[in-house]
Give the backbone structure.
Amino acid sequence: MSIIEERARALMDRYAFKEIRIPALERLSLFQRSTGDTTDIVEKQMYAFSDRDEAETTVALRPEGTPGVVRAYIDAGLDRRDPEQRFFYSGPMFRRERPQKGRYRQFFQFGIEVFGRADAACDAELLTLIRDLGVELGILLHIQINSIGDSECRPKFRDALIQWGRTNWARLCEDCHNRIERNPLRLLDCKIDADLAKSAPSSLDYLCEACRTHFDTVKRLTSAAGVEFTVNPGLVRGLDYYTRTAFEVMAEGLGAQNTVIAGGRYDGLVEAMGGAAIPGIGFAIGVDRLALALHAAEVVKERTPDAAIIPIGEAARAQAMVLAHDLRAMGQLQIELLSSDRKVKALLQRAGKIGARFAVIFGDDELAKRVVQLKDLKAGTQEEVPISRLIGALSRPAKA
Ligand SMILES: [Zn+2]
Ligand SMILES: [Zn+2]
């Protein structure tokens, strides 16, 4: 388990989220309805194929987690019986992409979904959760938020964007020409027309009273919790079901692919999927990309062996098995047992190569005295240590 998943799971426990396991394979129609027919994901990136069942159902590998969680939530009748739920999921997702650093066709997501909470405090709590994750991982995360309105006010913003798109038709790329009618919010997402999009209308100028109050409350509560963020009016979600609060989180040291968390509110989704009118909000962490950020920030050092064991001779070889077991089980140490078929000099080189802190060397003489030769590979020193004191010697902190 990656350090990211490990820390995220520990946070989930403290924030009282329960794990939900969702299938990797679902009907294609689930994603068409929830992810949205007009998104790049459904249009271009899905691995979909016909099953060999009688109906030749078209199934797809999940490109994201939310649709499956919502389906499971409705199937279980929770939307009517017990609507307020806090879930997390983790696992591989699949999208047809041109593979590059930080972008893979099978990638790992860790996500959370909250149902039954329409209040702004919930949005703010999720932002504190993201801040806490950054603290846990020892990495600086930049949170950007926006509000994209709701069914009350978004149509006016949409109209304004269509108008803007038509006015700027000649300067927009071909993809954007299609977006103008099909999904005008995504005009703001365009990588090619990013500069031009700065002159586009802002959703914040079109918010209705209720959406304005919601957004102001999210900002106030998030600030009160000591969480830093910036408002980015150009931030829209490529997925159709988002309402009101949308957010993205960037990490440093990743270049262009620097978004490591994305999410927001989706108050209309559960109902659109055939459930009751229950609000929802969630986000997903791109674990592979966040791992690259941790590497770039050098906060995650791979653990290297505490010791490499080098037995000399047949009796020592047998004893080495027992010793390695004791050090691992009782000392909780990372131990690599080296082959005794090679010369000691080669084995010491091997111990250095794998980054071991110590080499534990012993032959018949040492066995008779119940001691080992303990070589500190960093300091270059060597001492004779009784086996009974070996765990203590291997566990002591390195001198700075
Ligand atoms: Zn464009
Ligand atoms: Zn509104």
